[in-house]
Structures
1.
Amino acid sequence: MSILVYAEHDNSELKSAALSAIACAQQLGDDIDVLVAGHECGGVAEQAAQVAGVRKVLVADGEHLAQRVAENVAPVIEQLAADYDYVVAAATGGGKNVMPRVAAKLDVQQISDISAVVSADTFVRPIYAGNAMATVQSTDAKKVITARTTSFEPVAAEGGSASVESVDAGSDAGLAQFVGAELSGSEGPELTTARIVVSGGRGVGSAENFKLIESLADKLGAAVGASRAAVDAGFVPNDYQVGQTGKVVAPDLYIAIGISGAIQHMAGMKESKVIVAINKDAEAPIFEAADYGLVADLFEAVPELEKSV
Amino acid sequence: MKVLVPVKRVVDAYVKVRVKSDGSGVETNNIKMSMNPFDEIAVEQAVRLKESGVASEVLAVTIGPAAAVEQLRTALAMGVDRAMHVDAEEGVEPLAVAKTLNAICDEEQPELVIMGKQAIDDDSNQVGQMLSAMRGSAQGTFVSGLETGDGEITITREVDGGLEKLKLPLPAIVTVDLRLNEPRYPKLPNIMKAKKKPIEEKSIADLGIDTAPRLKTVRVEEPPARAGGVKVSSVSELVEKLKNEAKVIQ
């Protein structure tokens, strides 16, 4: 079986999500080629060639691919897809944006956000915000898949020696035009790959108070996350959101502070190995998911916790 | 500008879903059903475009069994001009939904399609992108800001690192995220009026759409339950447990 993996990157660095997508691909077959589509992304291609288990790295380099807008990237993938049994990407913002466009062009019913590979045509995926797990069998000859990054341990970034070759980068579709980006560029580890995540919710109360969360995270070397309520209230930017419609995380330790535990939030963090909840409401649903629950005023407990770790 | 808004009937976001004991799916009998929350945001945005004079007509479309007409009534009560029900069995897959919407776009020629980024039942997050590919148009996914211009729109998208702005030529497909707006509650007189408005009826078969499923649901199960946790009485006890029992901090 041959697999094309569409790799997530920012033109300079191959993202961990790509390593998870490759891990997913390894469960499907041995002939794994990685597509790096971007602009001046030779460095990323070199990194991809080092990844364990990669056969070939295909580079599509063009100015129109610099921001990887879906309208320009999808045709590149679509054209290459003819030679593969599977097309796989991580179910990140980038993968979610481009892959259904590819699937539609191939007349394939995409299988989104899979959490396990059962067999060559059968996969497990969460539905209803992870409150049910569906095992689905695809009857499409070619399969288009996005993989939940937290379900596939990233492969080793080194140990491989794949060949790198250029492929047709296509041309500008003349549709979406990039205007600009406002990246929050938070310091500290990346939310989706951090070993520890400290998240704050509505109970934190304000953007100012969120410094408590950030300070604890800093002390623990953790990434900062948030519930939808905290993002909607403007305490933190949108890319902090953990949940069904935000990011899915599965760190070794997840500390939920002032988060009540809506289903939609739990969907994004319940695969964490150890969950700690700090909330003054003893009835908050978050305590049902927590390994360790502390009923306390976060404004007292969090500074104390910071001092003791 | 004509705006098309697809809406989906789903289990209400606040219902705790239960898996059927035979593993065939999720219980939907006698369960509160609602418009997919993301679609509500899409309807709200379309109605605002109408109210500000940018949209000339807003058409809401749903694909599903007769019961889905209820969600069209909600859309009418919120302020859409027309409502169309495409009769189909439950569980039409995203690819076939996109093909159906494509056929309707052929007839209606909307300049803008606004829809939810995903439905909260199957969480697939596919239809908008697929429809956009089929129409060869620009797509703006996960949108939290929308400005209309002359023959184009500028959208703000929520991306993994923050926000991104794109300019899209019309016609375009936009899928909306949570922070685009806060949908209104329809007023009672509008709800009453919506009950009497005509619903345009079509059937998915008449549109020539092949709805044969490509994905067979083998089974649906409860997710693995987390082992019950414990309450700790103090920060020091918490730290002790994290160090010595869970061994997740040094």
Note: The mean pLDDT of chain A is 96.
2.
Amino acid sequence: MADHEHSHEDSHQAPPSDLALRVAALESLLIEKGLVDPAALDVLVDTYEHKIGPRNGAKVVARAWVDPAYKARLFADATAAIRELGFGGLQGEHMVAVENTPKVHNLVVCTLCSCYPHAVLGLPPVWYKSAPYRSRAVIDPRGVLREFGLELAQDTEIRVWDSTAEIRYLVLPQRPAGTEHLSEQHLASLVTRDAMIGTARVDASESQGAE
Amino acid sequence: MNGVHDMGGMHGMGPIQPEGNEPVFHEPWESRVFGLARAMGAWRKWNIDAFRYQRELIPPADYWRMSYYETWLASVVELMVKKGLVTRAEIENGRPAPGSAKNSPALTTEKVALLTMKGSPANRDVQVASRFRVGQEIRTRNINPEGHTRIPRYARAKLGTIDRSHGVFVFPDTNALFKGENPQHLYSVRFTAQEVWGAQAAAQDAIYIDLWEDYLAPVS
């Protein structure tokens, strides 16, 4: 994972080369003091790299699309409904689902830091934590959505959810037209991370899916 | 605190730069910092509000310069020193002080699944009277605490409507300063975009903000 493979956010430089060394030195000090177990760190990192990610949220969305009773439970108590599918816990202790409709579009942000529903979407992308998104999502949501290639009708009501507490928001995107014949599993493969933040629609024409 | 972290409504930050096929961590050291923060958090010497506040205390010029996980690293180091888990000398020397105690890690491999699947709920099962009801109009208080707070600057002294009641939650303003959890009702409050930003906003748009009772006053 060399630097040049990834464009970092505007506001920061590639980390100085001594940063990796500083972190390694700190970790070895904490191991020597018996404060951390490096194997536990490995498991934790593996969990967020391979187990907890937007595939979880996509399954919740697909279930809500095909099962009206589940959808009703999701809006009555999202934490419990998400737990039914085996997800929840850290940064998903208190979930609320919000529904996109032809009239209402929801967008989630954390203007103060980086609050994000880890349990269903994994760790947030860099842009979500960046100054451009955090500063503009609340004051210029239409401009932000346009930047993501999403042009909403003039009369659409945009609801921006600023995650200032421990409540974590999941957007239930609109089910694309012409997907009535698709299986729940296939539907889940269409649901992207961005659609569950509110910066994208779900597109039935290509199986992009949540990463 | 009225710090640089409180970005809602600021201008001039440039375009949003989404990254295709973004990795969970961009460098191995980022994943180690993430893990160290969680593993050291498991000692329960601080709480999530204190961790957020510590990041807010990073001097503004540094906050802008640092990448996300650099701010985590700096904050974990400060909290560890503040809480006596390590000393600055140990960090500088890279080895434990002679004769210092050897501990047993708080977060073991077996406990990781428990940590991630159980989480740390912030609601509290205590009876606290609720001053507001769903549908009620409120005005946010005009407060500017120097310490930690979760009411963004853009949302102060604004008229809103209680949209839903979340229940009783730990109050970050006191919890971050280790002055107690002070559990109180938390609400989702709806503000019209025009109430917050004026006529330039679309008439039908709204912002929903989760706000604790101490941030709110009734509209008389």
Note: The beta strands of chain A are 94-99, 104-109, 157-162, 167-172.
3.
Amino acid sequence: MLTPEILFAGLINGLMAGGIYVLVAVGLTLIYGVLHIINFAHGSLLMLAMYAVFFLWRKPLGLDPYVALPIVTAGSFAFGYLIYRALIGHFSHGKDENILLITLGLSIIIDNAALFFFTGDTQTIDVAYAGRMLSLGPALVALPKLVSFAAALVICLLLGLFMTRTDMGKAIRAVAKERQGARLVGIDVEGVMAISYGIGVACLGAAACLLMPTFYVSPTSGYAFVLIAFTIVALGGMGSFKGALFGGLIIGVVESICGLWLGEQLGQIGIPLVFILVLLLRPTGLFGAAR
Amino acid sequence: MLEVKGLSKAFGGLAAVDQVSLDVGAQEIVALIGPNGAGKTTLFACIAGFTRPDGGRVRFLGRDVMGLPPHRICARGIARTFQITQPFARLSVLENIMVGAYHTTRLRREATAQAVDVGRRVGLGRQLDMRADALTLAGRKRLELARALATRPKLLLLDEVMAGLNPIEVEEIVGIVRAIKDAGVVILLIEHVMQAVVSLAERVYVLSNGRIIASGSPTEIAGDPSVIEAYLGPGAAARLKQGRAHA
Amino acid sequence: MTRQGLIFTGPGVIALAAYPWVFRSNYAINVGFLILFAAYLGQTWNIAGGFAGQTSFGHVVFFGVGAYVSTILQTTYGVNAWIAWPFSALAGAFTGWLIGVLSYRAGLKGSYFALITLAVAEVGRIVANSVPITKGGLGILVRADPRAANFQFRDTVWFYYIALALCLLAMVIAWQLTRTRFGARLAAIRENEDAAQALGINSFREKVKCLTLSGALCGAGGTVYVQKYLYIDPSIAFGVDKSVEMLLVAMIGGAGTVLGPLIGSGVLHVIGELTRDLGNMLPGVSNAQPLSIIVYGAVLIAIVAWLPDGLMGLFRRRSKDGHHA
């Protein structure tokens, strides 16, 4: 029975998850906005980062995920930068279906490499404060969820400041708006694109640290996450930060409410259904530019 | 046959086509000229169903065709070519033309025969087995023409079919277009290449800033001061007259 | 088809038919089945993705719908499997029609179309996982009663010949696409949809017809799978792996060609076996299956990057001849 208390709890928990989804979506929308690539490997890269958090947490290193955040984020940036330079950068100038196929190939490689090396078992981490609950009105929220939510929004804010206040941020926005023009004013466009892809993946690194305390990871997580990320970006509008913000929170809530309303199995249908409806009814999303 | 009345199309605040009226009668070749950006291709797009006009009327053979989708416009007998050629790149020249021929028949044998015939008429007879994207620019222009022709249209809209061709190639295409007209197809063409306009068109409309500013025979509009000024800027007509007086 | 093509077809079919008599082991016949069946499914993808340029990432949805329809008809309603078979094709056709009408009405193409098909397949998986009639995640077991009348055979060789028949049927259909008006129109739509419309082609209608046909054939494949393995569950029926396999098989061989999927299936299978064997030789490796999928991913990237016309494209490169649809 869906009482208002349960609904409210669902809403709050959905928002908490949504905050982290925002971070995931921001990376994807940045990559699309600058490189015009639909990065199918986005979910797989998140899964990889989550495994990194897991292995850093395990003995002998025993790093708390929040402590590991700068390490994983930096490492993710480097990994993303390298992947762009080594692979994606060579093909980013063709038909956009082709680059989608290439990132699909990449995600297949990553997912199955994870399956091969880490086996199919799901892994979770236990942090000492995982059990601590806070009450927000009638809802009980796990402390890590709240911390992750706040951290995600802070990181987004920092990223926003980076994009507007720093030279590199301005260069990235220039390349996103007008690639040729950026080249003409002397911006190293290829370098900026590699950095942008790196930043997109760095967002995933940060999101991984914030997710692991309350989530699990398995090689199949990548696929689930990529659908969520696509849905958020489609809903919000490809290339729109505002869209990623609103989209992430909305989708977090949709996921939570659907789970409550339809049960854990059927509840998963909310995300792909939203995706389908957005594409059929308003493909530009809430804040996207007209195609 | 084609009656356009008061056609208008604006993009944002800019009126690309502004209350344009023109008509094309049976057994005619009519040219539409004007400086770049005058709205000629937008006008074609409106007539051919690729853009929905904001207002006005388009009638063909007495029936309203405004707002119909492109494939229905083709079914009514209007075929168009594209300013930037749009070949079916990986298909052969013959297969390209056959797509047009299939508009009037469903049999492969007939479509092939018709396509070969049309291909020869436009001068592609020896390149029928080539991939379309291997053609030169002149070849692609002929292919555009052939494909449209293969649909057996009553009206052919030719969008800058001479652009980028050298004078010899232009002469050849002029001959082909004249033969098409003689075979009974009515033609409305957009052109910049004056050699072609003068050789082919019996009547000319001049479009500038979305409006028709003059119409008449090629000689008439060549001497029309407003036409000169549309191309060369304000005051040009007077300066030319002075220049001639001095010569 | 060129004269060369005709010369090779007869002996080719005979060779494929004779295969089980030459290689008699159960293992070899099973391999043959797998290759032909994957080629069949790949050909159904090819009809939409290769010939019409409608790249779909979710083709498995037709397979899954077909598989579940015939299985549920058999196990829950006692319908004979042979009679249930056409209903699978019908269900696949309807699914294709629905996806086509909705997506094309909304003007979806390219990546957006690919992604919406992916989402639809995911919806299929979740529904199959959650509703009682499909027995959810448990899947459905078909009672083993290997008699011809039940569309079950003790000897794998029968399934080999069914797969061969289906594969040949699909190839004939693909071949027909290279020489009919419908196929020419699909090729035109694939190459340049605007130009196709200007030549009188109702691209919406043709694309829907194409997806319906593809869905019907793919759905029929679903039944064959269940009759052989006597089991279906949501991840087999709607898992993204099969969509990728169908796509890859067609693209390796040559999307938009008749022989492409068959060649692609053979090549993919050989690559898979080689990788698995090599992987199992490595110390401490118990299951080398993911390794072969990693190779598949790399092959996909390689094909898109360097050989977009697939292996058949290598033959084409000889002449400047036109692409025969």
Note: Chain B has a mean pLDDT of 90.
4.
Amino acid sequence: MMRTLSTLPQLIMLTLLLCALPVVSQAEQTLTAIPGKVMAPDFNLPDTSGSMHSLSDYRGKVVIINFWTTWCPPCREELPSMNRAWHTIEKEGIAMLAINMGEDEDTIFIFSADYPTDFPVLMDQSGEVIEQWPVKGLPTTYVIAPDGRIAYRAIGSREWDDAGLLDKVRALQQ
Amino acid sequence: MRCIATVSLIVAMPVTAGEVTRSVNAENGLQGWHFTDGDIEIELIQRLPDQTRALLMNHKFSRQVIEQMALSCMFQTIIRNTGQSTTNRVVSIDLTEWRLLHDGKPRKLLMKEALLESWTDADADPAAKLVVRWGMFPTQQEYLPGDYNWGLTAYGIQPGSGFDLDVAWRESGALRRGEIRGIVCAPDVDKLK
């Protein structure tokens, strides 16, 4: 028979112990495969340096596209792992674009002091681009195959430098 | 580490289905309710009216709208599909199926679509509306294993009020229901000690 915890201090200690475990690193880092051939909507957006980026410019490459805002807690949570992942996959010819929804360059610039990113951050200030994608909440990330179809989707944050997750992304290059 | 700082007290709560725990943030005193059943996990964390005021005052909302939102009993809400990818069970939610029981009467949650439609451009400019459009929880959404979302849900009752919440979701198409009892809206600043 299981012994039950009868006192509050024991319960609190157990809770703290469980919380101290590295839950995130143990969690399965899933990507949801999108069946069929759903083509990614094209866009033409400026990055924070003023350079324009069209998704069609990246045809032939695997592209990770992340929709986010600075005021979204899980968006902030995943940015460091996205940056670490980008330093690995950039050398392998995989692109990564973060599309900020609704904010201006100054807001993103101030935010980047705490959450630096080395991959392009695009600005969808009017929110017109995000409305063309099947996004329901933030963050949502899509992995686009070299032929322009949406291959995978992730709702909520992920540990983007997870080896298993990146292997799925890499496999799209073949 | 955030978890250690946040959870100071967990108390078993009576439920009709699933499992509910209540937590209190040791740093700010805000309470949270955590519900699990099958492949779904729902977490509601009190949001102070001042937190909502601070968010909205950074955008072009009228004072009236800021107060309307701040005093509408907001909760930071997290819904997650905790299933394994091997099972691949889809969890879907439709917030229009949720009901709160307050003062003995069932009520629907405030939906962002209705709020956005009710505001003129003088109440909220288009850029400001994006904050509500994307900051509030999606009314309908599907989650595959590992997916989760964060957003605000609004209950339309006074700060400091208590209510029970009937939640509904579908797991691989089958409707399921649960209840979270004894939820309390965060008090407004004048009630904080």
Note: The helical segments of chain A are 8-20, 23-26, 73-89, 105-112, 128-132, 163-171.
